[in-house]
Structures are given as structure tokens and as C-alpha cells.
Amino acid sequence: MAKELITTKKQVKTVAGYNEILRDIRSLLEKATYQAYRAVDNLRVQTYWQIGERVARGELEHRERADYGERIVESLTVDLNMQKSTLYDMLQFYKTYPILHAVRGELSWTHYRILMRVANAEEREFYEIQTIQNTWSTRRLESQIRSNLYQNILKEGKLSIIKPLHLKLLLPEQVFKDTYNFDFLQLQNGHSEKQLEEGLLANVERLLLEFGTDFSLAGRQRKIMIDYETHTIDLEFYHRGIPCIVLVDLKIGKFKSEYVGQMNKYLNYYRENKVYPWEKSPVGLIVCEYKGKEEAHYALGDLEDKIFVAEYKAKLPGEKEIEIRVRNIRNAELKESE
């Protein structure tokens, strides 16, 4: 009997189209499982909010007793066999999101536990939107909060790029940052441009998360021929929200004005030979370790809306490096005052 079953199974696998059917069914089962988990977690989020609301309402009704809420939590911990910290999280959840409609169904309870640590409401909404738009995992969300993404974007004056876009076309200056955080790279001091590029391509997912919504990587080391001479472009991206091709040139060390002429040449070539009628003109991004605001400003001139210069940080400076930088700043200030 066992032999018959095995034979039958082997015969079924030889039927034309079986592998495609098997793949599709597995995909359906995986999708159903994921949706079931999502539904359960969404129900948990709503239930925890309701529990938090009920405890908060009890506190309000007995506000003459300062310790009422604490005593209620103590009793519920015993009777419901729940951890005290979980009950306090539920209470804090309601106090952070007092309107149930403000609770987003796309976010899990673990997401909300992380978001509740963000005291500023606008900053918290920023991370909510980014998590949904970029489908951040809880680990990624925590990492972005820890790296002060909101404060960095706020300092650059580009906070508008993270608001819900409602599918409106964007301007290039709305999508580029002044500084890109490449701290996920394991680069040694004195690294080469090739090592920088290879490190980024080995971490494409994190690179795209750092660049932002609607960026996609189209290629690396793109070759173009000008006057029978081959030129190589480090990275080619595409941005759906503009929409246009984005050429990226990676440079180590300080920004140099000749980088602009080189990038402008590439953009002119692409504009005449690579752009579809419905696309906007390509833009360039030069990423270096240090750009020098004045040097970049005067080098770009009227190209500021076509070519952008940004810095990258591969790792946070150590204590000794910070001391040296502070000492250099102080020495510079002393010289100016003399």
C-alpha cells in the first residue's frame, strides 16, 4: 500500500503544470497565514486600547484617591495572571492615543510599544508614517529612532518629504538629504571608493531604506561612450515620485569643484540619450565625506536644482576623534579673535 502511495505521488509530480500549481497554492497559504497573524495582532491592539481606556476611566472616576490606578493594576495582575508591565503599557497606550481612530491598523502592538517611548506627538507621527510607507520592521523602527532620524531631517528643513504624499509629483530638492547615514557599513579608515560602493551594494535593502521612499536601484558601474572614450557612473537610481533617473557619484574625502563638471556631462548625455518623453530630466547626486558648503555652493551655481551634494557618515566618531575636532575648532576660534 505504501509503495502505491509513493508511486502515485511521483506520477502526480510529472503532470504538466504541477509545479506552478504547487507554487501558487503555497503562496496562497503563506498569504493567508500572514493575514491571519495580522488580523490577530490588530485585534490585540484594539483590545489593549480598550483595556487601557477602561482602567483610565476607573482612575478618573476615583480621582480623589491618588493610588487608585496603582491598586487596580496590582489587583488585575493577580486576577488576570498578567504582567504588571503589560497592564501599564496598555494604560500608557490609551493615554498616548486617546482616540481609537488614530490607531493605525498597519502597525503591530510591538510597533506601538516602541512608538510610545517617543514623547513628541509630531515626531511620533513621523515615525508612524515612515514605518507604514517603508514597511519597517520593529527592529528597523527602533534603529531609526535611536539614530535620531526625525531630528536630522528637521535640521535639514526637509520634514515635508515624509508627510503623506497623496501621489503628487515631487521636486528633486524634496527627496535628497544633506547627510546620509551609512553606519551599517564596516569600513576601515582610509577606505577606497570601490570599497564604499561594494559595501553599499552588499547592503542594498538598508541603502534603499536610507535613501527613502520611491527610490529603486537601476544599476551600478553604468558605462557610457563619449568621443570614443568610456565613462563609468557609480550608481543609477530611479525615483518614481519625480519621476526621473538619479545618477550617483561616490567620492571619498572632500568635495572638489571638478566633480560638478563631470556629473553635468553625464546628465547631459542621459538627457539626450536615455530619457523617455514622460520622464523629467535626470538629476545627479554627489556623495562625499565632506562637502564644504561654500565650495559646493559656488561650484554648483545655477545647477543647484539639477545636481545635489551630500555627505555620508560611515560610523560615529570615537572619543579621541571628537576631542581632536573640538580642539581644532577652539584653535580656529582663537586665531580669529587675535
> SSE order, as H and E?
HHHHHHHHEHHEEEHEHEH
Summed up, the helix count is 13
Major sheet: arrangement of strands: 1-6-5-4-3-2
Low-confidence stretches: 1-7
Instruction: Please outline the major beta sheet.
Output: 6 strands, mixed
Strand content: 5-15%
> What does the average pLDDT come to?
81
> What name does CATH use for the topology of the largest domain?
Trna Endonuclease, Chain: A, domain 1
Intertermini distance: 99 Å
Write a structural description.
The protein has 3 domains: 100 residues; 46 residues, no CATH class; 155 residues, Trna Endonuclease, Chain: A, domain 1 (3-Layer(aba) Sandwich), CATH 3.40.1350. The radius of gyration is 27 Å and the shape is globular. α2 packs across α4. It is built from 13 helices and 6 strands. Helix content is 53%, strand content 14%. Strands 1-6-5-4-3-2 form a 6-stranded mixed beta sheet, sandwiched between helices. By secondary structure, the protein is α/β, with parallel strands linked by helices.
Secondary structure topology:
Elements: H1 2-13, H2 18-61, H3 68-79, H4 84-96, H5 109-115, H6 121-134, H7 138-146, H8 149-155, E1 179-181, H9 193-201, H10 204-211, E2 215-226, E3 229-239, E4 244-250, H11 258-273, E5 283-288, H12 293-300, E6 307-313, H13 319-337
Parallel strand pairs: 1-6, 4-5, 5-6
Antiparallel strand pairs: 2-3, 3-4
Helix pairs in contact: 2-3, 2-4
